[in-house]
Amino acid sequence: MPNLQPYANPNYFIILGIALVPLIIGFLNGKRWHIYETLVSLLFLVLIFDGDKINQGLALIGYVIFEGALIWGYTVYRQKRNNTALFDLAVVLAIMPLVIVKFVPFLNPGRNSIIGFLGISYLTFKAVGMIMETRDGSIKKFEPWLFLQFMLFFPTISSGPIDRYRRFKKDYLKVPERDHYIDMLGKAMHNFMLGFVYKFILGYAFGTLLLPRMAHLAMASRGGFLDISWGLVGYMYVYSMYLFFDFAGYSLFAVGTSYVMGIETPINFNKPFSSPNIKEFWNRWHMTLSFWFRDYIYMRLMFFLMKHKITKSKVLIANLGYLTLFLLMGFWHGLTWYYIAYGLFHAIWIILTDVWLRFKKKHKDHIISNRWTNYLAIFATFNTVCLSFLIFSGFLDRLWFH
Amino acid sequence: MDVENTVVEILADLTGNDDIKDDMDMDLFETGTLDSMATVQLLLELQGQLDIDVPVSEFDRNEWATPNKIIAKAKELQ
């Protein structure tokens, strides 16, 4: 069997198209065949993880068994008791494989952990989400078949969007109304076409054609203050465009495929560069990641701090929440100085944005606010976001230290 | 306890806006009236004043988006 990486070449799409036809016919006739859906998923999981990726495939199997056993155990326990230390332990165990995978290349540069596999970062969110919902009493039973379907849902396995168990289960168990499914098919078609333009035309143009030239130019123009040059500025914008079109393109494919399969996976991008400030930006960029951190980290931490009256200052609580959220997000990307700097950058930026928003609210009557100030805000936000992406790209590491 | 009045009072307090009762179908999140911090405060107030326990994972923004929806949810969970 050949190895095909998700959405990477025409063969993947051809096989996908052929495999999905019976599903589409079924749905249009009001029928849902879970067995067939599962066979298609298995086919694609094999295609993604065979050949030279077989070790990853084995790691994936081991990981799913481990997380399944953990979640099952915790779910059973939680129906009788609710000890906090045990909940904390369950979460720590759930993230252990990912932590190991992130630490190995940090301790041993150049080496990758044998337990790693494509998508482990994203599957871990799904697993931890399930544990937290079980803790909260929202999930009361472990359902192995649904768990496997949720975790191994192949359209989103490599890089999300990150779905949530109960939302997925609801979609999975129902047969969409014919009219609704036709609507979903329409959206899927639109997603595939837009995804194609984003990933294979724009993302390709920016990432494969322009970016290396900018990199070359920036590296050759070192010597100024902080090695800044027009080449570096060019790199910043080109990289930002590449990042958006490549990732948004992938997300469109993932969501489109999900829709054809009757699962309304949440979207990841919603005109992010039209955001007037960084708070709005995180409602529009990599949305499923942002909302996961918001709901499972930020809100829980704030709830804890406020309930236990750790401090009276709401501002301090919010700021601690932001720092925790964005630093964790930085670490999640990897144990490099630039990922952590990226997290810190966004933490500080959002804290300062809150300062500004509070000031604006207080002096509402003395601050100009019109169409032009809004454009200015969008422009400023866009540029600052691009600067944060330059940090995120790791290029500064190349520029300054190599 | 009058759920409707309590919720309106809590919201007015949180947002610093007494006119909240004039538009009970306003989307509080889209308009930026409520953010995550205010949401947590809302849940804590509901717990304290109406004895309603809402775990954070139960909170779905779609179901709690407007004052009317919040009142409906509060009544349901009482």
From TrEMBL, chain A:
It holds the Pfam family MBOAT. InterPro entries: Ac/AlaTfrase_AlgI/DltB, DltB, MB_O-acyltransferase, MBOAT_fam. It is an enzyme of class 2 (transferase). O-acyltransferase that catalyzes D-alanylation of both teichoic acid and lipoteichoic acid (LTA). D-alanylation of LTA plays an important role in modulating the properties of the cell wall in Gram-positive bacteria, influencing the net charge of the cell wall. Catalyzes D-alanylation from DltC carrier protein. It is a multi-pass membrane protein. GO terms for molecular function: acyltransferase activity. GO terms for biological process: lipoteichoic acid biosynthetic process. Pathway: Cell wall biogenesis; lipoteichoic acid biosynthesis. The lineage of its organism: Bacteria, Bacillati, Bacillota, Bacilli, Lactobacillales. Its EC number is 2.3.1.-. It comes from the Bacteria. The chain crosses the membrane at residues 12-28, 35-51, 57-77, 89-107, 113-132, 144-162, 192-212, 224-245, 315-333, 339-357, 377-396. Keywords: Acyltransferase, Cell membrane, Membrane, Transferase, Transmembrane, Transmembrane helix. This is Teichoic acid D-alanyltransferase. One of its GO terms (cellular component) is plasma membrane. It is found in: Cell membrane. Belongs to the membrane-bound acyltransferase family.
